[in-house]
Q: What sequence folds into this?
């Protein structure tokens, strides 16, 4: 099967930028002729899903005014410590909308590394604006910190994978990359990989949910994911 090099995408907006749109829009999806031994072209991209949280705008959109601020008892004085658990609905929506505007990508790698500050070109303001984000299980006990819930991240990935499965007629492949040193749960990631494997092989169920294409597929996938979580 012919493949192109996976494009590294760290922000939803990059999907529609000119240098990426050439690969995403103008790359013909080859369909083999009957009896031909050639395989269809498999387009691929590597999405760094949490990296947009490094930008003040997306981080502000994901701050939850109270419902995700949980208290935990820690330390010898048992004083409550409040962590700001981000609501990543806006982040998930941004990725889904961007993907809905391009032809389906049949091989997606979901990189779940925590956001990092821009490598920088001497722009100190970006360093100052960056706020570190933790997984909920590794946020330091002292002080108030930003954290993402693993279940929310897994839901985002599953929703995007389901929508992709709904849009792609042929084979799809999903991969997950994560950094165990950052605190990502190996057990949770193993479960996520199993779910993605099941989605990649599921055709009849998702075919019944197909609409006219585009964003409707992504909205349908989100609804299915929410029902499954209930």
A:
């Amino acid at each position: 099967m012919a493949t192109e090099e996976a494009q590294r995408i760290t922000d939803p907006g990059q999907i529609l930028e000119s240098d990426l749109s050439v690969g995403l829009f103008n790359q013909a999806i080859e369909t083999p002729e009957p009896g031909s031994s050639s395989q269809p072209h498999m387009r691929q991209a590597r999405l760094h899903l949490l990296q947009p949280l490094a930008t003040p705008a997306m981080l502000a959109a994901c701050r939850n005014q109270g419902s995700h601020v949980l208290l935990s008892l820690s330390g010898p004085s048992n004083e409550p410590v409040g962590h700001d658990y981000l609501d990543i609905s806006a982040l998930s929506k941004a990725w889904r909308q961007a993907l809905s505007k391009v032809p389906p990508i049949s091989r997606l790698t979901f990189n779940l590394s925590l956001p990092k500050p821009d490598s920088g070109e001497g722009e100190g303001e970006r360093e100052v604006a960056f706020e570190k984000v933790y997984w909920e299980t590794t946020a330091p006990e002292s002080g108030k910190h930003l954290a993402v819930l693993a279940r929310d991240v897994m839901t985002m990935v599953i929703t995007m994978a389901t929508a992709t499965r709904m849009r792609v007629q042929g084979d799809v492949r999903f991969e997950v990359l994560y950094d165990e040193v950052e605190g990502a749960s190996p057990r949770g990631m193993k479960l996520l990989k199993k779910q993605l494997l099941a989605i990649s092989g599921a055709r009849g169920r998702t075919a019944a949910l197909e609409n006219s294409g585009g964003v409707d597929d992504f909205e349908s996938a989100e609804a299915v994911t929410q029902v499954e979580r209930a």
User: Anything to note?
Assistant: Residues 7-12+39-229 form one domain. Helices lie at 18-25, 56-62, 89-100, 124-129, 150-167, 186-201, 204-207, 215-229. The longest helix spans residues 150-167. The mean pLDDT is 75.
